[in-house]
């Protein structure tokens, strides 16, 4: 079995959010639709805020939680997949929302799984709290869909 501390695991989640920031930046440059670019800018900012939330949590969390070991059997290719993803310049709002929902859902599932497998109640609660925050940002994406469709 492979284990990592929660600190290292959350560092990986931070990397995933940074990879999404870079993906949305790149896609906004490649897009030829103003609404899609605006949506991508919104998603880029959402990912920056998600990164900052986790970063701040790691800075403030008690060491006994951050040094708790969690099972580290998960796909570590998320940042690389973001870097390698190529889309058409005429990507639609629905395509962007679908992409964002897929990536967000993957991170939420990873956090939920780690919370479930976490060995202590305190570490389970900490990871579940972060999961809840991620779910709330996914809800913002879903709500943004209708706002961007009717612009």
Give a written overview of the molecule.
The protein is mainly α and 151 residues long. 77% of the residues lie in helices and 4% in strands. The chain is built from six helices and two strands, in the order βαααβααα. It has helices spanning 6-30, 34-60, 63-66, 78-84, 93-117, 121-149, and strands spanning 3-5, 69-71. It has a two-stranded antiparallel sheet. Helix 1 (6-30) runs parallel beside helix 4 and helix 5 (93-117) packs antiparallel against helix 6. It is elongated. The mean pLDDT is 90.
Summarize the structure.
The chain has 151 residues and is mainly alpha-helical.
Any chance you could write out the topology, listing elements then pairs?
Blueprint: E1 3-5, H1 6-30, H2 34-60, H3 63-66, E2 69-71, H4 78-84, H5 93-117, H6 121-149
Antiparallel strand pairs: 1-2
Helix pairs in contact: 1-2, 1-4, 2-6, 5-6
Helix content: over 70%
**Quaternary status:** single chain
Strand elements, count: 2
Strand order of the largest sheet: 1-2
SSE order: EHHHEHHH
Number of helical stretches of at least 4 residues = 6
Structural class of the secondary elements?
A: mainly alpha
Poorly predicted ranges (pLDDT <50, ≥5 residues)? none
Report the portion of residues in β strands. Answer: under 5%
- Based on Cα principal axes, name the global outline: elongated
Largest sheet: 2 strands, antiparallel
Keywords:
single chain; 151 residues; mainly alpha; 2 strands
């Amino acid at each position: 079995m492979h284990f990592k501390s929660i600190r290292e695991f959350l560092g990986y989640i931070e990397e995933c959010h940074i990879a999404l920031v870079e993906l949305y930046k790149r896609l906004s440059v490649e897009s030829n639709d103003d609404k899609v670019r605006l949506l991508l800018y919104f998603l880029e900012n959402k990912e920056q805020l998600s990164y900052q939330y986790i970063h701040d949590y790691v800075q403030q969390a008690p060491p006994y939680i951050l040094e708790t070991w969690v099972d580290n059997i998960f796909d570590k290719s998320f940042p690389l997949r973001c870097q390698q993803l190529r889309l058409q310049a005429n990507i639609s709002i629905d395509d962007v929302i679908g992409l964002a929902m897929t990536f967000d859902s993957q991170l939420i599932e990873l956090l939920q799984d780690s919370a479930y497998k976490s060995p202590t109640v305190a570490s389970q609660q900490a990871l579940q709290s972060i999961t809840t925050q991620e779910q709330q940002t996914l809800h913002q994406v879903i709500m943004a869909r209708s706002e961007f469709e009717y612009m």
